[in-house]
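Usage

Read records sequentially. Each one opens with the input sequence:
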Amino acid sequence: NYFDLLRGIAGGLALVGGHGIAPSVSAGSDDPSAHWLVLGVQAAVLLVGLLLQTYRREHQRVLFFAPIFFLAGLSVSLTGAWPALFAFILVWSLNPILGKAQTFLAMYAVLIGAFGWLLEKVPEEFVVICIVLCLAPVLLSLLTRRPLVVFSRKAFHPEAGPA
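and closes with the structure output:
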Protein backbone atom coordinates (compact mmCIF):
# COMPACT_ATOMS: atom_id res chain seq x y z
CA ASN A 1 0.00 0.00 0.00
CA TYR A 2 2.79 2.41 0.78
CA PHE A 3 4.31 1.70 -2.62
CA ASP A 4 1.02 2.86 -4.14
CA LEU A 5 1.23 6.03 -2.05
CA LEU A 6 4.78 6.70 -3.24
CA ARG A 7 3.83 5.81 -6.82
CA GLY A 8 0.96 8.31 -6.69
CA ILE A 9 3.13 11.07 -5.25
CA ALA A 10 5.99 10.49 -7.69
CA GLY A 11 3.77 10.13 -10.74
CA GLY A 12 1.66 13.13 -9.89
CA LEU A 13 4.63 15.37 -9.15
CA ALA A 14 6.40 14.26 -12.31
CA LEU A 15 3.36 14.97 -14.45
CA VAL A 16 1.85 18.15 -12.97
CA GLY A 17 4.79 19.42 -10.95
CA GLY A 18 4.62 21.21 -7.65
CA HIS A 19 6.70 21.50 -4.48
CA GLY A 20 9.62 22.89 -6.49
CA ILE A 21 9.39 20.27 -9.24
CA ALA A 22 8.72 21.43 -12.80
CA PRO A 23 5.92 19.62 -14.66
CA SER A 24 6.95 17.20 -17.37
CA VAL A 25 4.22 18.54 -19.66
CA SER A 26 3.67 22.28 -19.91
CA ALA A 27 2.30 24.82 -22.37
CA GLY A 28 5.04 26.66 -24.20
CA SER A 29 3.01 29.82 -24.66
CA ASP A 30 0.49 31.97 -22.81
CA ASP A 31 -2.28 30.80 -25.13
CA PRO A 32 -5.32 29.73 -23.03
CA SER A 33 -6.17 26.93 -25.44
CA ALA A 34 -2.69 25.46 -24.99
CA HIS A 35 -3.13 25.62 -21.21
CA TRP A 36 -6.43 23.71 -21.38
CA LEU A 37 -4.97 21.17 -23.82
CA VAL A 38 -2.05 20.46 -21.48
CA LEU A 39 -4.42 20.24 -18.52
CA GLY A 40 -6.58 17.75 -20.45
CA VAL A 41 -3.55 15.61 -21.33
CA GLN A 42 -2.40 15.63 -17.70
CA ALA A 43 -5.87 14.65 -16.47
CA ALA A 44 -6.13 11.88 -19.08
CA VAL A 45 -2.75 10.39 -18.13
CA LEU A 46 -3.69 10.47 -14.44
CA LEU A 47 -7.04 8.82 -15.22
CA VAL A 48 -5.37 6.02 -17.18
CA GLY A 49 -2.96 5.43 -14.28
CA LEU A 50 -5.88 5.35 -11.87
CA LEU A 51 -7.78 2.84 -13.99
CA LEU A 52 -4.69 0.63 -14.15
CA GLN A 53 -4.56 0.73 -10.35
CA THR A 54 -8.27 -0.07 -10.06
CA TYR A 55 -8.78 -2.88 -12.60
CA ARG A 56 -7.57 -6.40 -11.81
CA ARG A 57 -8.32 -9.75 -13.37
CA GLU A 58 -7.85 -12.67 -10.96
CA HIS A 59 -9.04 -16.25 -11.26
CA GLN A 60 -11.03 -15.46 -14.44
CA ARG A 61 -12.92 -12.69 -12.63
CA VAL A 62 -12.81 -8.94 -13.09
CA LEU A 63 -12.29 -7.09 -9.82
CA PHE A 64 -12.16 -3.39 -9.03
CA PHE A 65 -9.81 -2.54 -6.20
CA ALA A 66 -10.18 0.71 -4.29
CA PRO A 67 -6.91 2.59 -5.00
CA ILE A 68 -7.03 4.45 -1.70
CA PHE A 69 -3.30 4.98 -1.18
CA PHE A 70 -2.64 5.76 -4.85
CA LEU A 71 -5.32 8.47 -4.72
CA ALA A 72 -3.81 9.84 -1.52
CA GLY A 73 -0.49 10.14 -3.34
CA LEU A 74 -2.08 11.88 -6.31
CA SER A 75 -3.82 14.23 -3.89
CA VAL A 76 -0.47 15.36 -2.53
CA SER A 77 0.66 16.47 -5.97
CA LEU A 78 -2.67 17.96 -7.05
CA THR A 79 -3.86 19.77 -3.92
CA GLY A 80 -0.80 20.01 -1.70
CA ALA A 81 0.53 18.03 1.24
CA TRP A 82 -1.58 19.58 4.02
CA PRO A 83 -5.01 19.17 2.38
CA ALA A 84 -4.14 15.60 1.39
CA LEU A 85 -2.92 14.78 4.90
CA PHE A 86 -5.92 16.31 6.67
CA ALA A 87 -8.42 14.67 4.33
CA PHE A 88 -6.68 11.30 4.64
CA ILE A 89 -6.58 11.40 8.44
CA LEU A 90 -10.19 12.57 8.71
CA VAL A 91 -11.56 9.98 6.29
CA TRP A 92 -9.69 7.19 8.08
CA SER A 93 -11.12 8.37 11.40
CA LEU A 94 -14.60 8.19 9.83
CA ASN A 95 -13.92 4.82 8.22
CA PRO A 96 -15.71 2.68 10.86
CA ILE A 97 -19.01 4.46 10.19
CA LEU A 98 -18.61 4.68 6.41
CA GLY A 99 -18.72 0.96 5.71
CA LYS A 100 -18.02 0.43 2.01
CA ALA A 101 -15.01 1.48 -0.04
CA GLN A 102 -17.31 3.48 -2.33
CA THR A 103 -18.48 5.60 0.57
CA PHE A 104 -14.90 5.98 1.77
CA LEU A 105 -13.72 7.33 -1.61
CA ALA A 106 -16.76 9.58 -2.01
CA MET A 107 -16.15 11.11 1.42
CA TYR A 108 -12.44 11.48 0.61
CA ALA A 109 -13.39 13.35 -2.58
CA VAL A 110 -15.56 15.76 -0.58
CA LEU A 111 -12.86 16.30 2.05
CA ILE A 112 -10.02 16.74 -0.43
CA GLY A 113 -12.14 19.26 -2.31
CA ALA A 114 -12.91 21.24 0.83
CA PHE A 115 -9.37 21.19 2.20
CA GLY A 116 -7.84 21.76 -1.24
CA TRP A 117 -9.84 24.94 -1.75
CA LEU A 118 -9.41 26.20 1.80
CA LEU A 119 -5.81 25.40 2.73
CA GLU A 120 -3.63 25.68 -0.36
CA LYS A 121 -3.16 28.13 -3.16
CA VAL A 122 -3.20 25.58 -5.99
CA PRO A 123 -5.04 26.04 -9.27
CA GLU A 124 -8.72 25.22 -8.87
CA GLU A 125 -8.49 22.98 -11.92
CA PHE A 126 -6.17 20.64 -10.02
CA VAL A 127 -8.61 20.40 -7.12
CA VAL A 128 -11.44 19.57 -9.54
CA ILE A 129 -9.28 16.95 -11.28
CA CYS A 130 -8.49 15.42 -7.88
CA ILE A 131 -12.18 15.25 -6.97
CA VAL A 132 -13.05 13.63 -10.31
CA LEU A 133 -10.22 11.10 -9.92
CA CYS A 134 -11.43 10.19 -6.42
CA LEU A 135 -14.96 9.67 -7.70
CA ALA A 136 -13.97 7.74 -10.85
CA PRO A 137 -13.59 4.29 -9.15
CA VAL A 138 -16.90 4.86 -7.36
CA LEU A 139 -18.64 5.68 -10.63
CA LEU A 140 -17.00 2.71 -12.36
CA SER A 141 -18.16 0.42 -9.58
CA LEU A 142 -21.71 1.71 -9.67
CA LEU A 143 -22.00 1.58 -13.47
CA THR A 144 -20.73 -2.00 -13.66
CA ARG A 145 -22.60 -3.08 -10.51
CA ARG A 146 -19.45 -4.55 -9.05
CA PRO A 147 -18.20 -3.66 -5.59
CA LEU A 148 -14.89 -1.99 -4.94
CA VAL A 149 -12.66 -4.53 -3.24
CA VAL A 150 -10.26 -3.49 -0.50
CA PHE A 151 -6.85 -5.09 -0.92
CA SER A 152 -5.94 -7.67 1.71
CA ARG A 153 -2.92 -9.92 2.08
CA LYS A 154 -4.97 -13.09 2.55
CA ALA A 155 -3.69 -15.63 0.09
CA PHE A 156 -5.98 -17.79 -2.00
CA HIS A 157 -5.31 -21.49 -1.37
CA PRO A 158 -7.72 -23.68 -3.36
CA GLU A 159 -6.35 -26.92 -1.86
CA ALA A 160 -7.17 -25.74 1.68
CA GLY A 161 -10.90 -25.65 1.00
CA PRO A 162 -13.39 -23.19 2.49
CA ALA A 163 -12.51 -21.64 5.81
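Summary fields computed downstream for this record:
- The chain has a mean pLDDT of 86.
- Helices lie at 2-16, 32-54, 68-79, 81-98, 101-119, 124-144.
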